[in-house]
Amino acid sequence: MILLLGGTSESLKIAEALNECDIRFYLSVVTDYGENLARSVAEHIIKGRLTRTEMISFILNHKIDLVIDATHPYAVEVSKNAIAACFDTEINYYRFERPSYHAEEMVSVDSIKAACQKALENSGNIYLTTGSKTLGEFLKYLPKERIIARVLPTAEVLMTIEKFGLSTAQIEAIKGPFSKSLNRELLIHNRAGVMITKESGQEGGFLEKVQACNELNIPCIVLEREQIEYPNKFSSIEELIDRIKG
Q: Strands, DSSP E only, in 24-151?
């Protein structure tokens, strides 16, 4: 039995591929939104963030012999827990990760604090497309009144960010990924002087963000991924499925 750790569009595609091969699996998701998406591709769904101990218990109790980690490139704690749990239970760990994309026009930083320092060198609103989970960290370093936060349009997310005291004009609840032209119009509409985003890869619409910023001649500040030594790493779903079948 396989435990598939989801949270990305690719994890749903992996689930579809496993179904086509009649391979049984559990799909792990964190949010209600993820659970709703998972229902179309998975019979067995577990919801909630798993600690290392919880993951070990699940592996042992459900006779898991392989963990496929298809979580978001920035969900590093989940990946670290999964690697450790597989090591402790002596089962295989496969990592699927979308390839990195870099562009000359972007400004790379390695921390939220560094991203905020770079952003404050520019005038205008600060357009955050980094999600709701780290919004509190950004508010430690940025003036609240300059922030426009682009987030998923779910009640769960909106309840999370409501406590930070942003006005409705500062919250853009909309689902991506977005084209270059739509990113451009949203930046103009929000009078953005700078964007802060993550290097989420082609599936996450990353290049379209960089290109939109470049056309408007505003900085695109990019939080780099934390580098982890993943065992058995794949960037092709076909290669991953072939390894599982083989």
A: 25-29, 44-47, 66-69, 92-96, 106-109, 125-128, 147-151
Contacts of 183 (CB under 8 A, 6+ apart): 205, 208, 209, 211, 212, 213
Q: pLDDT, tens digit, for every residue of 118-140?
A: 999 999 999 999 988 899 999 99
Q: Which single residue is written with the structure tokens 């993820």?
A: 34
CB 10 within 8 A of CB 237: yes
Sequence-distant (≥ 6) Cβ neighbours of residue 119 within 8 angstroms? 126, 142, 194, 196, 219, 221
Element containing residue 34 per DSSP (H, E): helix 32-38
3-class DSSP state of 53: helix
Whole-angstrom distance, CA of residue 135 vs CA of residue 128: 9
pLDDT at 203: 67
Q: Which pair of structure tokens corresponds to residue 2?
A: 């396989």
Give residue 141's identity as a one-letter amino acid code: Y
Between CA 234 and CA 177 the distance in angstroms is 23
CA distance readout (Å), 207 to 7, 98, 116, 213: 20, 13, 21, 10
Q: What does pTM read for this prediction?
A: 0.76
